[in-house]
Write a structure and sequence with these properties.
The complex is a heterodimer of chains A (393) and B (215). With 393 residues, chain A is α/β, with parallel strands linked by helices. Chain A has 13 helices and 17 strands. In chain A, strands 3, 4, 5, 8, 9, 16 and 17 form a 7-stranded mixed β-sheet that branches. Chain A has a 6-stranded parallel β-sheet with strand order 12-11-10-13-14-15, with helices on both faces. A two-stranded antiparallel sheet of chain A has the order 1-2. In chain A, α5 packs across α6, α6 packs parallel to α7 and α8 packs parallel to α10. Chain B is an alpha+beta fold and 215 residues long. Chain B has one domain: START domain (Alpha-D-Glucose-1,6-Bisphosphate, Chain A, domain 4, 2-Layer Sandwich), CATH 3.30.530. In chain B, 36% of the residues lie in helices and 26% in strands. Classes of the chains: A alpha/beta (393), B alpha+beta (215). Chains A and B meet through loops of A and α4 and α5 of B.
């Protein structure tokens, strides 16, 4: 089959690789009809995630048709399914708590040691996202082997186009959980850093959850315009002092909740961020966290901090005092996708949520490298790239 | 012991004797020292290089009885213990032969008998005369809090023999014995909780190749 493979920093290619097969009895094979490039794929593209090997098939946002099933799969050939990016067994302690992204059993045993040393316990598995999270072949391919196919994939009705439901795989539930982790109350003012796909869906979710005001922060005019269209007020951090603006826009209190939808490759000209840029480049592993630091300063005493943005390592100059003295609640985590897919599908069906506005480009799989390059370099115009393996080149 | 004056064997003999004494002292001390805190014996800080005792715990969301029953059928062990190639059914004296993978594609035989067991609580086994390596192991099953299932603890102690084969075995066991114990227990957990052992290979050929590499 054809698949998008990683070969190094800024080097991804579409290669011919072996077709996936049923290995375990709960597996299914999916023929991919749509798959997206995620903002977090750019962390792989930029070479800041450890444990990626040349030849690894990337991609963790995908959907398609069931073409083969193992003896214990509950799926049927021909069904259209969206596949969560988190691989979860459904039977362990964490899965039973609906903490699907902390599944004990999906990351192969021999791959668990690295993340266990980093975090104290091992990570669970994700599709196409380095050997830290299992080394599973991802969805930017013609076919994918999907383990635990009786737990993850959600069957979608034929009357909903791929573009309407594809983002159930990751960014829609990730934005939703980002807002949920901010514990939004009806009178809250919520600030969201980053108007990429997750940030935009977090804005949309916060509004659905009843926030009185949502303020979006970014510097790409087109992305800020999308946020405005969703109902947010916007701040361009190149034009405006963000902390001062947020203090005034929240009536001198500070915002009630903050959402960092930026993650480890934060932009910004603060001196600590510039030092972190250098450290990240020379492999000292410092996460660039200037957005999150700013968010912690901007949130009110007793406020809520939600971190859907991806971080992997350590950071310096952490505002520990502000965190403690202000009595903040901080929540993060990879998304427990399986917990949200059913409800969010219902919200798509009844029109509460629309995700299609995000897609700026649709490309055949063969043009995936072009998609990566432009998604990285032209972030203003390229807001979301969907790859279609069946599309004419 | 028949003494020779060649320095090499003298040193080796002394090291072996010291090792044996240390091993014995260690085994007895792990009981005596319990009571200072409640951490498991195998989590005690040890001098570097003292790898005589390894152990790990894992929580499995299944009742004790089900886990005990699966483990007690020793022929199931190779399905999740990476180093164990095969286990024969026990003979009339209750002794079974465990074939353990050794470096360079070799195997070592351990003649094993059940030392003690209590239904649904624990199983202890030990090597008997004629084994390539002296070892004992124990698995304990305890109820975990609430509905979390069972806490399973595996402890293995061993005393590698002298000689080239001994060194090879010691290397095998000492490579990352804690890691090995944890890996085995986690595979056991996967098998019990999900019915399969997670793998990220894409094709069956990859599985076969990986097995050959490990064997």
């Amino acid at each position: 089959m054809r698949a998008l493979t990683w070969h190094g920093t800024n080097d991804v290619r579409v290669d011919t690789v072996s077709d996936p097969e049923i290995i375990n009895s709960r597996d299914a094979i999916i023929k991919v009809t749509s798959t997206a490039i995620c903002g977090s794929d750019l962390h792989l593209y930029d070479g800041v995630i450890p444990g990626v090997k040349p030849g690894d098939v990337l991609g963790h946002e995908f959907m398609g048709e069931v073409v083969e099933t193992g003896s214990d799969s509950t799926l049927k050939k021909g069904q259209r399914v969206v596949v969560p990016f988190t691989i979860s067994c459904g039977g362990c302690f964490h899965c039973k708590m609906q903490q699907y992204s902390a599944c004990d059993n999906s990351n192969p045993v021999e791959k668990q040691d690295m993340s266990a040393s980093l975090y104290g316990q091992p990570m669970s598995a994700l599709f196409g996202y380095s050997h830290l999270t299992g080394g599973y072949s991802g969805g930017q391919a013609e076919y994918v082997r999907v383990p635990f196919s009786d737990v993850g994939p959600i069957v979608v009705p034929d009357n909903l186009d791929d573009d309407k439901v594809l983002f159930l795989s990751d960014i829609l539930p990730t934005g939703w959980m980002g807002a949920e982790n901010a514990d939004i109350q009806p009178d809250d003012t919520v600030a969201v850093w980053g108007c990429g796909p997750v940030g935009l869906f977090a804005i949309q979710s916060a509004i659905v959850m009843g926030a009185s005001k949502v303020i979006a922060i970014d510097h790409y005019p087109n992305r800020l315009a999308l946020a405005k269209k969703l109902g947010a007020e916007v701040i361009d951090f190149r034009e405006t002092d963000v902390r001062e603006a947020l203090m005034e826009m929240s009536g001198g209190i500070g915002v009630d909740a903050v959402i960092d939808a930026v993650g480890m490759e934060s932009h910004g000209f603060a001196i600590d961020n510039m030092i972190d840029v250098v450290k990240q480049k020379v492999g000292m592993g410092a996460d660039r966290a200037s957005a999150l630091k700013q968010a912690i300063m901007a949130v009110r005493f007793g406020g809520k901090v939600s971190i859907p943005g991806v971080y992997g390592g350590m950071t310096d100059k952490w505002p520990l005092g502000a965190m403690m003295e202000k009595g903040l609640q901080i929540r993060g985590g990879q998304t427990h996708v399986q917990k949200y897919t059913r409800d969010l599908l219902a919200k798509i069906e009844d029109g509460t949520l629309d995700t299609t506005f995000l897609i700026s480009h649709r490309l055949p799989l063969e043009k995936a490298p072009e998609g990566y390059k432009n998604f990285k370099e032209q972030q203003n115009e390229w807001t979301k790239v969907v790859l279609k393996p069946g599309m004419e080149n | 012991m028949k003494q020779k004056f060649a320095t090499g064997s003298g040193v080796a003999g002394l090291a072996l004797a010291t090792g044996a004494v240390a091993f014995g002292a260690f085994l007895s001390s792990r009981h005596r020292h319990r009571g200072f805190d409640d951490g498991p014996a195998f989590a005690k800080r040890q001098p570097p290089g003292n790898l005589a005792l390894v152990g790990r715990s894992v929580t499995i969301r299944k009742p004790k009885a089900e886990l005990f029953e699966f483990w007690r059928d020793f022929s199931n062990l190779p399905s999740f213990m990476e180093n164990v190639e095969s286990i024969e059914d026990a003979d009339a004296n209750g002794v079974s032969i465990w074939k353990i993978k050794a470096p360079a594609g070799r195997t070592v035989d351990i003649k094993t008998e059940v030392a003690s067991e209590k239904q649904n609580e624990h199983i202890a086994w030990r090597s008997v005369e004629g084994s390539d390596i002296e070892t004992r192991g124990e698995v304990r099953f305890e109820d975990a809090p609430g509905d979390r299932g069972t806490r399973v603890s595996l402890t293995i102690s061993y005393d590698p023999p002298a000689g080239a084969l001994g060194r090879a075995i010691a290397k095998l066991f000492q490579r990352e014995p804690q890691v090995q114990a944890r890996h085995d227990l986690k595979r056991f957990k996967m098998l019990m909780e999900t019915g399969e052992i997670a793998t990220s290979v894409r094709t069956n050929d990859e599985t076969r190749a990986a097995k050959q590499e490990n064997g």
